[in-house]
Please model this.
Amino acid sequence: MKQFHSFGWYAARIAPYLPEEAFRPVPSRLFGGLAYMLVLVSSIVTISLFDLHWLWNGLLSVVIGFCFAGLGFLGHEILHGTVVKRAWLRDLLGGIAFLPLCTGPKLWRKWHNATHHVHTQHEELDPDAWPTIKRLAQSRFLRWVYRIPFPIRAAFSFLSLAGMFTVHSLHMLLHFWKDFEKGNRRAVFWQFVLPWSVWIGLLLMIGVEKWLFAFVLPLLIGNTIVMGYISTNHRLNPLVPVNDPLANSLTVIVPKWVDILHFNFSHHTEHHLFPAMSSKYYPLVKQYIKQLRPDRYYEMPMTKALIALWKTPRLYHEQTELIEPREGYVYGTLGYGLNIDDLSHKVKENVIGKMVKEK
Model:
């Protein structure tokens, strides 16, 4: 069993080497959001007012989709309190940034800040963790899903990235609804309704065809970009009994210009060490993590991480392995035998077949 440490253990050893300004809000990040908003609004207005060829509308859809994703990354940063500190302003700006992805600030802080960050990769408590073989045994639906051949499931899984963030947000609303106090439920409800009201209102104004280019296609593109990161954040890592960011998180490598556009969202281990720190300083944090525990820090090019996700299953076996129950193929996780340059596997018995017989 590897020795795990909490994120506080690492933070306490790295924080003394960081400049004081690293622990202060960075309001200048809002200029990036303003640029995204100007491009987004201009592109939607152009699609709405002019009868352009579908190819030009398609190109504008791509631009809008990139803006949707960029604003989502900024909203994530704002709602961690790293841009502005006043609660009402944080929620207002965060809500505006997340409006394209149709997620409310109160729900996001409950789901992401207060639950995912506190219980990262915990088998039962992390709402973003993938299921275990135990859950497969308890769920008829999951057993049906895992009868589908792996190549088909892998292809469908990657195609579903185009809608997964929005769908998961709705699932989280239903999941956490009972946890909100009655006084907060009204705000959570309206924060969910308002973004959809804006986009449905746009539909009524400009018609279905233009709306597909102005919102639907950009939403799919924005989801894909955001989920491209989120899917690599933890899904190659093991489930862990201690919230150890070096064990349960992965930093991916992207070109520098992409990091600028996406507010350093690629630095995910760093984010889990210092969630209340502006991502502006995460490259500096990375340097000190590598000095402190170079043997435990995981990073890889994003393309390699996505290929590894494509080739490995998303079902945990004994917390440190990923299993394809149909064929009984077992792969390691990061730190437990996973080699992304040679994705070999062990073979176990047909687990799903055994479970069906037991049922």
